[in-house]
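JOB MANIFEST
job_type = single_chain_structure
chain_count = 1
residues = 184
[input]
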Amino acid sequence: MRLLLFGGAAVPLLVSVCALLLSMSLPGRAEEMPSVGAAAPDFQVNSQEGKPVSLQDFRGKWVVLYFYPKDMTTGCTIEAHNFQRDLAKFDQKQAVILGVSVDSVDSHQQFCTKESLTFKLLSDPSHTVVSSYGSLSPTGMAARNTFLIDPQGKIRKVFTKVSPNTHSEEVLAALAELQGGANE
């Protein structure tokens, strides 16, 4: 390998490696996480039914947009079961649950069938939604984060690095607080 020359002096191989790394395009690079009060980034991806779903489809309702690493893993199954268990409570509060991971539509379909999940799971294999919400982990999977979005499309609460065991109850409590205790 040839060394680069700069002003007649050899530049260490490290500079060449750094230049190469900088020139590489890293797909799905995570963007900054949107903050409370910001407009929630819109998206359109397919659900487990293979149908396109957009955040705009839920304008006028509260949205629990939760990101999770992988279908059919222990923590993700617990978290999904708890959201499913509490689905009627979320319905009473005019809130929809949308789970997002980088898994395929087929994987989501199998997960929903196996675990009797009736809310929408959104497939984001291109990392577009995960990245726009600053929730792409270094492993290329979604980080376990949740965004509570109000009926006007504003982010009202952000949960990061959540515990799958208690997260559904935590989101319900935050929703009740934000709604001023209404619809309890």
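[summary]
The helical segments are 13-23, 74-85, 87-92, 105-115, 128-132, 167-178.
DSSP finds six helices and nine strands in the chain.
exit_status = 0
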